[in-house]
């Protein structure tokens, strides 16, 4: 699940701006006056309120450490133990245990217990995105570090937003849920990079 390291859980369809069949008619925030959040709280509020919004990101929003960290028992998969035994500098990834323990945690094949420390912002309480929102980054400045998105509405456009640092050292450190994701021009940790 590390291929798409975004904490995005979809309750309904996500469409990216464009003229393709699945996104036809998607307007996001439409003609709403653009807003430019300057704080973590402001970004959270704009994304989750009931107003149509065009939210422009002109800076990096760094949620790392904003909700604390935790240390708990995790999983070290056999593949990771094998890599570590080679002593070639490759560290691999340990895993955060999911509900049901090691037997129910994907990626913990033949796992052994190990202590893992991770940031809670990436694993708990993702940024909720409600209906009629456009979230657009400006150039390379539209960055959200340490927290993912949870799309809870319809008519949402996400363009040129870079989502990074979701506990990259861990399996399940901020991965996407197991729901369908519509994507266009997706590269690692980036929705619709645009032209």
Question: What does this entry show, briefly?
Answer:
This protein is mostly beta strands and 195 residues long. It is built from two helices and 15 strands.
SSE topology sketch:
Blueprint: E1 9-10, E2 34-35, H1 40-48, E3 53-57, E4 60-62, E5 69-76, H2 78-86, E6 94-96, E7 112-119, E8 127-129, E9 133-137, E10 143-145, E11 149-151, E12 156-159, E13 161-164, E14 170-171, E15 190-191
Parallel strand pairs: 1-11, 2-3, 3-9, 4-10, 6-14, 8-11, 9-12, 10-13
Antiparallel strand pairs: 5-6, 5-7, 13-15
Relevant terms:
Pectin_lyase_fold/virulence; mainly beta; 195 residues; single chain; 4-stranded parallel sheet; Pectate Lyase C-like; 9% helix; 2 domains; 4-stranded mixed sheet; 2 helices; disordered C terminus
Describe the structure.
This protein has helices spanning 40-48, 78-86; strands at 9-10, 34-35, 53-57, 60-62, 69-76, 94-96, 112-119, 127-129, 133-137, 143-145, 149-151, 156-159, 161-164, 170-171, 190-191. By secondary structure, it is mainly β. The protein has two domains: 9-66 and 120-191, Pectate Lyase C-like; 70-118, no CATH class. The strands form four sheets. A four-stranded parallel beta sheet has the order 2-3-9-12, with helices on one face. Strand 2, helix 1 (40-48) and strand 3 form a beta-alpha-beta unit. It is elongated.
């Amino acid at each position: 699940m590390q291929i798409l390291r975004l904490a995005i859980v979809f309750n309904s369809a996500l469409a990216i701006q464009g003229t393709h069949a699945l996104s036809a008619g998607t307007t996001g925030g439409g003609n709403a006056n653009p807003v430019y959040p300057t704080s973590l709280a402001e970004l959270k509020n704009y994304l989750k309120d009931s107003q149509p919004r065009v939210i422009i990101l002109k800076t990096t929003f760094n949620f790392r450490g904003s909700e604390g960290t935790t240390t708990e028992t995790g999983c070290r998969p056999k593949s990771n133990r094998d890599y570590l035994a080679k002593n070639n500098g490759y560290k691999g990834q340990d895993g955060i245990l999911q509900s049901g323990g090691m037997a129910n945690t994907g990626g913990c094949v033949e796992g052994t217990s190990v202590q893992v420390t991770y940031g809670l912002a990436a694993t708990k309480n993702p940024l909720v995105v409600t209906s009629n929102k456009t979230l657009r980054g400006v150039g390379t400045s539209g960055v959200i570090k340490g927290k993912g998105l949870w799309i809870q509405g319809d008519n949402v456009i996400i363009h040129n937003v870079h989502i990074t640092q979701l506990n990259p050292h861990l399996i399940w450190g901020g991965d996407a849920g197991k729901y369908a994701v519509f994507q266009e021009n997706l590269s690692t940790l980036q929705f619709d990079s645009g032209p």
